[in-house]
Design goal:
This protein has two helices and two strands. The protein is of the alpha+beta class. A hairpin with a 5-residue loop joins strand 1 and strand 2. It is flat, with a radius of gyration of 14 Å.
Length: 51
Amino acid sequence: MTFMDLEDPDYAYMFGFLQADGHLTAGHGRKGRLTVELSHRDAEILGDSSD
């Protein structure tokens, strides 16, 4: 089983979104922290698409 199949449109979108709007920082013990800044204008785009 593949952790994240980038041929799946949902994973591909999330991966691109995190690359564009995310920031990865190194912390204690070389662990990373991923932060993403969102705007309320993104709510409709990021909403649940399983309806």
